[in-house]
Structure formats: C-alpha cells, structure tokens
Automatic annotation (TrEMBL):
GO cellular component, one term: cell leading edge
Lineage of the species this protein comes from: Eukaryota, Metazoa, Chordata, Craniata, Vertebrata
Protein name: Dedicator of cytokinesis protein 8
Pfam families referenced in this protein's UniProt entry, alphabetically: DHR-2_Lobe_A, DHR-2_Lobe_B, DHR-2_Lobe_C
Domain DOCKER: 1-314
Amino acid sequence: LSPDEDGICSGRYFSESGLVGLLEQAAELFSTGGLYETVNEVYKIVIPILEAHRDFRKLTLTHSKLQKAFDSIINKGQKRMFGTYFRVGFYGSKFGDLDEQEFVYKEPAITKLPEISHRLEGFYGQCFGEDAVEVIKDSAPVDKRKLDPNKAYIQITFVEPYFDEYEMKDRVTYFEKNFNLCRFMYTTPFTMDGRPRGELSEQYKRNTILTTMHAFPYIKTRINVIQKEEFILTPIEVAIEDMQKKTQELTAATNQEPPDAKMLQMVLQGSVGATVNQGPLEVAQVFLAEIPADPKLYRHHNKLRLCFKEFIMR
C-alpha cells in the first residue's frame, strides 16, 4: 500500500473487521472451489483476531465451517477434480510478441486434447483467418525453418505435474500433488532414424521438464514457461521405466481396498499375456538375454534385473 494516496487507509476494508470479512469471503470461495485444505490455512489467520475480540459467536461459526471442510476432505478425498494441464507453444510472426513463447494452460479437470485444440484453433482462426492457423499434432521439437512464414502454428501437448523424488516425501496427499505446481513434464518417444516408435532395442525417449513463472492454481489460467530441461533415456532406461510402472500398477491393483478383480485382471493381462507386444517377456529377451559388452551398461542391466525381481514378487 502507498500511504500517501488519499483514501487508501480510510477505506472500509482497511480495518480488522474489513480484513476478517475479506478472509472469510476467501475461505468461502476456496470451499466452493473444492480446495478444502486451504480453508484451514485462511482461518488460521482469522481465528486469533476473533479470539482477541472474544467474539465467541463468530468463533462457533468458523469452527463449524472448518469441521465441514475437514469432513469434505475425508469424504471427497480422491474424487475431487483439480485440473488438466497442457503446454501450448506459439510459432509464426503473425503472433507478434507471442512468437516462440510457451505457456502451460490449466483446464477444467476432464478436458481432452481435442477440446482445447479445437478451442484455440477457433479463437486464433477468428483473429488471423481460419486458413492461416495450423495445429502441430506431435510433441517433437519444432523446426522453424520448415514452417510457412504466412501461417500461425500452435503446438499443444498434454503435460503432467512433475516432482523430484525428495519432493514426494512432502507431497503425500492427493491435494498436495495437485496444489502449488510449477513444474510439468511430457515425454516424446523417438528412434535414431527419425521414426517416433521402433523395436524395443532402438526405442529412445525424451523427457521434457517445464518450469512456469508462477505456481498453479493462479489468478490466470495460463502461465509463461521460463525454463525447459530435456533428458534423453536410452532404450534400456526406457525399459526400466516401463517395468517400474508395470510393477506399480500391479502393486496398486493387488492392494486395492476393496479388491477389484476386473482391474487386477486387466493389469495381469497387460503384464503377462503372451500376445502382449513389447511386454515384460520381450523386454527380458531383448535386454537380459546376455550380459552387455559395454561396462557403462552394467548398472542399467542390474537395475533392470532388480526391477524384474520385484515384478515377479508382485
């Protein structure tokens, strides 16, 4: 606040009761938005003020609202929908300042890629003319030299929140995994000869991690990407990742409460069916048939063997 401006400090919100009013409004809105955990954080500021005023009537009301919020967390837990995220890149001089800018968009929870794609295509089609806008369908890096200079290109990729392993220790609940997010990841499969998919032994993967300027949820539903990191996984590392994922799925399916036979059936079929192409059996035949000649691969080879040990145990 700048105190020298007239009327700023004498406004009706610039008082304790004004502050409490605004915070209560915020708590109500968080509650409506299904962010019940934050309701508690807001009331932590309100309660000491009400206690200092010995305002027991309002304290009663506040605690009953808190109880409601905690009940909602218990009852709605995983059923809440927090949002789906997409990376959107703009290419072409028609976009002006936006050219070569990347954003992460937050969309309502069950938004599919074609929906956001259709919406953005329609919106920019109205701006530049329908023939001038083109959506790039893959997530491979864009080569500007191959683009038509008279067109506006939009590249849209589904991204998922990304956390380092140490972060996962603090992000235990479903809410914590969906709140205060500023890093996102998407993967692009590729082979050395330019095709996206190939045999197991030649299947590489590029993991791209984006960092946004602010954390979601935010006032705006799209935020600039300020940093981009890329990691290339070799075929054996891709296989390790796949095996770990399969083992996690199996663990989840076998530990489900109450047990879900259909889910287990599906996971098992995907894991051990002989017809499953590029399934665990093929992974083992390709990567574990013989000890690799290159000593650099020993570590990965051992890791993959340990993945299989865990997998067979599950």
